[in-house]
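Researcher: Let's run the pair from yesterday's discussion. Sequence first, then C-alpha cells, for each.
Model: Starting with the first of the pair.
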Amino acid sequence: MTSVLDGPVITADMARELALSQKVCIRPLLRRVHDRATDTEDVVALPCGSTREAVCPPCAHKARILRMQQCTEGWHRTDEPEYRPTRQLDEDQVDEDQPDNEDRRVRSTRRRQDAPDLPRVPQEDRTVGRVFATADGREYRPSMFLTLTMPSYGAVTSAGVPADPAHYNYRRQALDALHFARLVDRFWQNLRRAAGYKVQYFGAVEPQRRLVPHLHAAVRGAIPRATIRQVVAATYLQLWWPSFDRPVYVHRVPVWDGESYVDADTGEVLPTWDQALDRLAADPAAKPAHVMRFGRQVDMAGTIAPSEDADRAVRYLTKYLTKAVADTHTEPDSEPEPVVEAHVDRLHAELRYLPCSERCANWLRYGVQPDQAGPGLTPGRCPSKAHDREHLGLGGRRVLVSRQWSGKRLAEHKADRSTVVREALLAAGIVAPETERLAAAVTLADGSPRFVWTDTRPDARTYARVLLASIAERHKWRDQYEAAKAAAPVDKRSATTPPPDPG
C-alpha cells in the first residue's frame, strides 16, 4: 500500500527504512489529538520506548545511550551524591541495603560449613573511593571494573553448546538463571561488609555464549583484589523452599474450587504456601531446595577517569543491553545455528516448569499452592517473563544500580539530557518547542482540557506521513542544535548527545 505525499510516491516500507537511517522511532504510538481551541485534529507520534534492538533500533539505541550516561556520571564521583531515602524505588533500582525477604521463620543463621568466613572490617560512612598520592605529589582516585561468572554445568564447545547434552546439567543452569539477581544482591551486601564502606555499583546482567548469566559491574572506589576473591568465595544463596525435585501433577492439574486448589480426582486441598513452609521449618533434617554460588572465574581491572579505558569499559558494559538474552550472540539478519537453537530450546523446556518465585503458578505442579494463590493459575503458564524463550530465566532487571550511584533516577538523567539541549538552543536565541504543548494539563479559559487525546488505528498512508513528519522535525532540531553548539559551545560530554525527540 502506498502513500502519496508532497512529491513522489512513498511507501510505508520506504518511510520505515528512512526512519531507521535517521534514528527515528519506527513503531510510534499514534494518537489523534483534538485541539478544542481551534477545532482541529492532528495525528501525533509518540516514541515506543522499546529497549530491544529487534523491536525498534532507534529507541533501543537511545535507551543504551541513557544508560551509558547514568553509568559515567556515577562511576568516578569525587563528592557524595545526595541521598534521598524512599521506599518507592525506580524500576531499575534495588534496595540492596535491606535483607532479602525469603523466609522469616526461625532458622539457624550459621554460615554453611563449606563456605569460608567473610572478612569484617570497620565501616566508614562514605560511597566515594579513596584518594591515592604518588611520590611526585599527583593524586588519583581509582575505581574498578568487575566481572563475575557462574560455575560450569558441563563441557561446552566453542559455539557455547554442550559437548554432551545428555549429561549437561540444564536444571541447575535454569535455576541459577532464575535466581541470579538474588545471588548478586547477596554479593554486594557481603562486599560492603568486607570493603569497609558503602560500595556503589552499576551492573549489567548478560549471558555468556553458553547462555549462562554473568555480571559486569562498574564499582566506585578501589578494593583489594584478594578481598574481592574472598567475598566471591564466601557468597552463596540458599532457597529455603518446599522441595520441587519431583512433580506431583504431570498429566493432570489441580483445580480451583472457589477458595483453594484441590486435587481434581480426590478433592483433597493442596497445602498452602505457609503450611508448606511450616512443615519445612519443623523438619530438623530439612535442606535448602537449591544452593547457588559464583564460579571461580573473577575478572578485576582498575580504571581511572577520564581515560579511553574508562570510556571503553562503559561501552562494553552496555553492549548487549539492547538484545534479548536468547539473541545476544546472534549476528543481525542471520539465522542461528541448529545446535544453538537446540540448546536454547532445551534450556527453555527446563525453565517452563521450574518455580521462579513464591507466587509462581508452577508450584501447583509440585503439589503446593503458590503464595497468595487465586483462580486462573496453570502450571507451565506462569506470566513471569523469566519463563519466556526470549529471556531464558533472566526475567528481572538487566541493569542493577545501587541507590547512591549518581544521586538521580533514570528519569532525571533523561531530563538532564533535554535540559542541555534546550539551554544550548536558548543561548543561541532559539526557543525549543515546549514539551508540554499538547499536554492534558493545558486548559481553556473555563478550566477544561484544551487537548483531547484518543487512540487511532492508522493505515499505511497515515503511518508514512507521520513518520516522515517526525524525520523532518528531527532534522530541524538537529540543524538548530548544531548551529547553537557552534555559536555557544556547551559541556562536551553532554552536548554531543543527540537531542530528544520533540513533543
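Model: Moving on to the second of the pair.
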Amino acid sequence: MESIQILDAKKHVGETVQIGAWVANKRSSGKIAFLQLRDGTAYFQGIVVKSEVGEEVFQLAKNLNQETAVLVTGEIREDSRSKFGYEIGISGLEVVGESHDYPITPKEHGTDFLMDHRHLWLRSSKQHAIMQIRNEIIRATYEFFNKNGFIKIDPPILTGSAPEGTTDLFETNYFDQKAYLSQSGQLYMEAAAMAFGKVFSFGPTFRAEKSKTRRHLIEFWMIEPEMAFMHQEESLEVQEQYVAFLVQNVLDNCDYALDVLGRDREVLKKYTKLPFPRISYDDAVELLQKNGFDDIQWGDDFGSPHETFIANSFDQPVFILNYPKAIKPFYMKPHPTREDVVICADMIAPEGYGEIIGGSERAIDHEYLLEQIRAHGLDENEYSWYLDLRKYGSVPHTGFGLGLERTVTWLSGIEHVRESIPFPRLLNRIYP
C-alpha cells in the first residue's frame, strides 16, 4: 500500500492508500463520521461508515479530538461537492498522537490570543494558504533571477554601519566594538555587482522602528538585486517583469490557496499587464493636492493614505519616480538637470498595500559620495570600502529591494502583514 500526501490524491483515484494527517475538525451522525483531515499539503474529507469498518473503528473515529494525529487507510474518491475535489473513504484508522483541549477551536478568537498561540495558529486553513503563497513567491523569485543571469550573493547580517544612515538599528556588542543587525544588504550587493555583474540577495533584515501599523514588522525578508552597467529605466523594466512573474506564478500554482483565501483571480490578473504606469513625485503631489489631500506639500514623504490614493488612481502597481533628495538615502544618484531630486522609484501596490519596492540608480562619483556621507553625519572611515567601489572601475549601476512580507500580504489579500511570516516580530511581541 502506498503512502501519499493529500495534495496528490487526484493521482490515486480508485486506489487504496495510507495518509498521515491531523484531524482539523469532525462531525458525525449515528452511522457516518466525517473527518476534516490536513497533512501540511492540503485539507480534505475522510468518511468513516459504521457498516463498513465495524463498531470499534467507528467509535474511535467519533471520539477523535481536534488535532489528533492519525494514520488513515482508505480509497481515494472524487468529491464534486468540495473545492478540493477528492476525499478518502476510510477503512482503517490508527491514532499516532493524541490531542486534548486544543486551544484554538472553530469559534472566533481575538488577535492577541491567536498571536500568543502562533505555533498552533499556523495549522489553520487560512494561515496554511498564506504560507503556501509565501513559498511560491520564494520559489518563483529564485526561478526569475536564475533565468535572467543573476547570481545569489549573501551579504552579512552583522554590520559595522547603517546603510541608510538611520538610527532605527538593533545594536549589539561585537567583541570590543559596536555592531548592528542589518537593515539592508544593498551596499554589499553593490560590491558584489562590481564582481559578478548581476546579483541578488535574499535574507532577513531588521528595523528597530517603533511602528504599529499593519505594514510594519521588526524582522522581515528582503530580495535585493543589483545590476552593473544598467540605468534606472532598465531597472524599472526588471522590477515590473519580476513582480508580474510573481503574480502569474501565484495564479498558476496556488489555486487551492487562493480558493481558501477567497482571492479574486481576475483582480490579480490585472497585475500581470505590462508596463506598469509611472508618475513623477512632482505629479503625484499635484494629484493628491487636487483631490483634497491638503496635508501634503512638496518635500514631504507619502503616508499610507497618499500611497493608497495614488495606486488606486491607476488600479495597478505604479512607480513613483524621482523623490526629493532630502528624504532619500545618501547613495542615490542626483538628477542630471535638477539639484532637488534623485533618480529613484518606489513601486506602490494597489488595494491599499503601499510600497513593496524601493530602488534607485546609485551615485558613482567618488567626491559626491564622500560629500554626502559627511553631510549625513556618517563616519567616512566606516564607508571607505564602499568609496573604493568608485575608485576602481566604477560603472553605472542600479538596484532595488522588494519586501517579501508586504508582497505576500498583497497577493494573499489579507489585512495585516503579521500573518505573512511564520513567526512575526512586532513592536511588543517576540513570543513565541
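Researcher: Give me one sentence on the second I can quote.
Model: The chain has two domains: 2-97, 119-420.
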